[in-house]
Design goal:
alpha+beta; 2 domains; four-stranded antiparallel β-sheet; 4 helices; disordered N terminus
């Protein structure tokens, strides 16, 4: 401390007192200020790191948010595109429907496949990690639609070609039917003509056959009794009759070629029965006019020479005759060529 001058004590005239000027604080040594610098630098560095980390984290969060927003926008865009594509696809398929059941069934099947594909894509769109797969599926849906349309158009073309072929076949069938009807009509006419020709031919044949029948006349029957000497006597009594002598005369027929001819003699009893014994040459012939079988008594064969010849034969049945009126019929070639009668008392 510096001493001050007191005037009272010294007795001398003193100069006026001076005001004491306070002294400034003694500054700290420079060594103390230098010690704070590292601390401040550390604090500043930490602050910079914190700011950098916060900035980085903020940027990452911002990017994540932006990415999520982009994913949401992309998902919404794909969902909208999916709906549009599906609606357009269904509309296009519906426009391709016709009255053809096969094509309509194929379109309904393709619509069901598109519905299943749409459901699968919608499921992918709910998972943001599968947006690429959803996008690829949408592209595949477009490609499938084109394939479906191409398949339907090909089927329609085939159906149209088939329809044209069917039309041609129908025309050909109609033409064939017309031709067939014409041929059937012609065949019916030919068949009618053939039947008529056959009928005429048969009639002609019958006429020729009938014209070739050798008619007979003078059909006479003589009842006879055979005596012990072998001679015969004419009788009228049934009890006295042993045999019948039947005679008839052939008539000239220039149409008939000379040759062997058969005459079937039929003796009919009063009861309407044909006298017939197979062991004596009886049998059955056919009436050419009626087609019925006719039992005959005996057959006489003669070498006809287009002349009049009397033919006779004997019928001896070795059994008694009955009383009554008998009829005699002579057949040649199945036709009745002459007849007569006689009576036994």
């Amino acid at each position: 401390m510096v001493p001050t001058n007191d005037p009272k004590k010294s007795g001398t005239k003193q100069s006026p007192p001076t005001t004491a000027i306070p002294t400034a604080p003694t500054p700290k040594p420079k060594k103390s200020n230098n010690a704070l610098v590292p601390i401040l630098l550390s604090i500043g560095f930490l602050l910079l790191v914190a700011v950098a980390w916060l900035t980085y984290n903020s940027m990452n969060t911002t990017r994540a948010l932006e990415q999520k927003i982009a994913q949401l926008e992309e998902a919404e865009k794909l969902r909208s595109e999916l709906e549009n594509q599906y609606s357009e696809a269904i509309a296009e398929l519906d426009n391709l429907k016709t009255d053809n059941e096969q094509i309509n069934a194929l379109i309904d099947q393709q619509k069901a496949e598109l519905q299943a594909q749409k459901s699968r894509i919608s499921s992918l769109l709910r998972d943001k990690r599968k947006l690429d797969g959803a996008r690829a599926e949408i592209e595949q849906l477009k490609a499938d639609l084109q394939g479906y349309i191409a398949e339907i158009e090909q089927l329609q073309a085939e159906q149209e070609l088939l329809a044209q072929e069917n039309t041609l076949l129908k025309d050909e069938r109609d033409n064939l039917n017309v031709s067939l009807k014409s041929k059937l009509a012609e065949n019916e006419e030919l068949e009618t003509a053939r039947v008529q020709l056959i009928s005429e031919k048969e009639d002609l044949a019958k006429s020729v056959e009938l014209g070739s029948v050798i008619q007979v006349k003078s059909v006479n029957v003589t009842p006879q009794k055979v005596r012990r000497s072998g001679k015969t006597a004419t009788k009228k009594s049934a009890k006295q009759t042993d045999q019948l002598k039947v005679c008839f005369t052939t008539i000239v027929n220039e149409v008939v070629q000379p040759g062997a001819e058969k005459f079937f003699i039929r003796i009919i009893s009063p009861q309407g029965e044909t006298l017939a014994i197979d062991d004596l040459g009886s049998g059955v012939t056919v009436d050419s006019k009626t087609g019925e079988e006719v039992r005959y008594t005996q057959v006489a064969e003669y070498d006809y020479a287009n002349d009049e010849t009397q033919l006779c034969f004997l019928w001896k049945p070795n059994m008694p005759f009955q009383k009554g009126k008998y009829d005699v019929e002579i057949y040649n070639k199945g036709y009745l060529s002459g007849k007569g009668n006689f009576e036994l008392k």
